[in-house]
Design a protein that fits this description.
Arc Repressor Mutant, subunit A, MarR/SlyA-like, about 150 residues, DNA binding, cytoplasm, about 65% helix, DNA-binding transcription factor activity, 7 helices, transcription regulation
Length: about 150
């Protein structure tokens, strides 16, 4: 019988402690307030992201006609503007792309016959990108794209 009383007393003691902890915690819990400054639609960065995605989507059908994706088009713009061969790092710097993103993009452009990739004669660690005849002629096909894009947004 003494063992039963001891168990009951311990249970009451633990219950009292638990009750005390619960009431202390409950009094210190702050009410949840909805902070509208953290709503996704109130984020400036999200507005820019949505606008960028919309522009990329608008370019897609125009670029499909000349066989390029939007990132490939940007790389080709850098190459068309250059006076000659361009280093991979220079393209990456201009487009704010790392080599992990840029290398497969350039490989696909090479596979399509628009560019060549070669090692630099001056620095064996450096890759040089040059336009092929196909890449240069693609410039003429792309020449009207900026005007066509502007026409979409009168």
């Amino acid at each position: 019988m003494c063992a039963d009383v001891s168990v009951v007393q311990r249970h009451k003691k633990h219950s009292a402690q638990l009750s005390c902890v619960q009431s202390c915690c409950a009094s210190n819990i702050l009410p949840v307030v909805h902070d509208q400054t953290l709503d996704l639609d109130n984020q400036f960065c999200f507005s820019l992201y949505r606008a960028s995605r919309a522009v990329t989507r608008a370019y897609r059908p125009l670029l499909e006609g000349i066989g390029l994706t939007y990132p490939q088009y940007l790389a080709m713009l850098v190459l068309w503007h250059a006076e000659g061969p361009v280093g991979v790092n220079d393209i990456g710097t201009r487009l704010h792309l790392d080599s992990g993103t840029l290398t497969p993009l350039l490989r696909r452009l090479e596979d399509a016959g628009f560019i060549t990739r070669a090692w630099s004669n001056d620095d064996e660690r450096r890759r040089i990108i040059s336009l092929t005849d196909g890449g240069r002629s693609l410039r003429h096909q792309a020449a009207g794209l900026p005007e066509r894009m502007l026409a979409l947004y009168p």
